[in-house]
Design goal:
single chain; Rossmann fold; alpha/beta
């Protein structure tokens, strides 16, 4: 058995979650090979070779892979697939973009968002917005899998000694093309990799309150900022802050939920956090059912008071 892991990267560094995906892949059995595809991504390929557990790195570099468009990604991965028993990618926007196309072209069923590996052909994945876990056994000759990165501890970023092998890039499919990417820049930690997250919901009332009330708390804790879908849909904050079933799945050491009622879709994205603190004026809010610590009261009084205490 052998596993091919598709690496998410920015050309120079591997994205958070790749090392976790390798950890999940290692549990599937056999050697782990990593595919680093992109444009001017030699540094990322070298970083992949240093990951613990990676035996070999396939490096494919071409201009038409700059945007990771699904059609070109699948054209590269599908011919490589027969050499492997498993193909895995992070269950992030990166993996969700092209893995379904890969599965369709291979005529196999994709196994999405796995949270545990029981054997080479048996996996556990959440269903019903995380309220139940399904154990899935696949008879497909090639398993196409996306991995919930928060469910696996990352392998070490150094210590590996994998070989790097160049792979010839197929011609541009011409079916779609990458135009541009607008990346929001922040001094805060990336949401999916942050150890501490401060999230706000509809109860914040406005985007201005996120700045006035939550940002001082996040600054004091060195935390990333998150939000519920309701806050994003209301236009309070950008959609890349969204935590939940249709946003980002996170599992920080500390998750502070402020003014978030705890809709099932939001809980699906953060309930694996090690410690959850909830602040809400509604004592019946569902968020308190998953919170380790809960405070019932006015967030506009409680959060500033908390910030003052942290300054002492």
């Amino acid at each position: 058995m052998s596993v091919l892991v598709i690496a998410d990267h920015d050309g120079k560094q591997l994205k958070p979650g790749v090392a976790n995906t390798v950890a999940g892949a290692a549990k599937m059995g056999g050697d782990v090979t990593m595919l680093v595809v992109g444009h001017q991504c030699a540094e990322a390929a070298q970083a992949a070779a240093k990951l613990a557990g990676v035996k070999k790195v396939l490096h494919c570099d071409a201009p038409h892979y700059a945007g990771f468009v699904a059609e070109n990604m699948a054209a590269l991965i599908v011919p490589l697939a027969p050499q492997y028993t498993h193909i895995a990618a992070p269950a992030t926007m990166f993996g969700k973009n092209f893995m379904p196309r890969v599965a369709a072209l291979l005529d196999v069923q994709q196994i999405s968002d796995i949270s545990a590996v029981e054997s080479a052909d048996t996996f556990v994945r959440p269903i019903y917005a995380g309220n139940a876990l399904a154990t899935v056994k696949s008879k497909d000759p090639i398993k196409v899998i996306t991995v919930r990165t928060t469910a696996f501890d990352a392998v070490a970023a150094t210590g590996g000694n994998g070989s790097v092998e160049a792979v010839q890039a197929p011609a541009d499919s011409g079916l779609s093309s990458f135009v541009t990417r607008e990346v929001s820049k922040s001094e805060r930690p990336e949401l999916t990799a942050a150890k501490i997250i401060v999230s706000g919901g509809r109860g914040m009332g406005s985007g201005e309150n996120f700045t006035k009330v939550l940002e001082p708390l996040a600054d004091k804790l060195g935390a990333a900022m998150g939000a519920s879908r309701a806050a994003v849909d209301a236009g309070f904050v950008p959609n890349d802050w969204q935590v939940g079933q249709t946003g980002k799945i996170v599992a920080p050491d500390l998750y502070v939920a402020v003014g978030i009622s705890g809709a099932i879709q939001h809980l699906a994205g953060m309930k694996d956090s090690r410690v959850i603190v909830a602040i809400n004026k509604d004592e019946e809010a569902p968020i308190f059912q998953v919170a380790d610590f809960g405070v019932v009261g006015d967030l506009f009084q409680l959060v500033p008071s908390l910030v003052e205490e942290l300054k002492k």
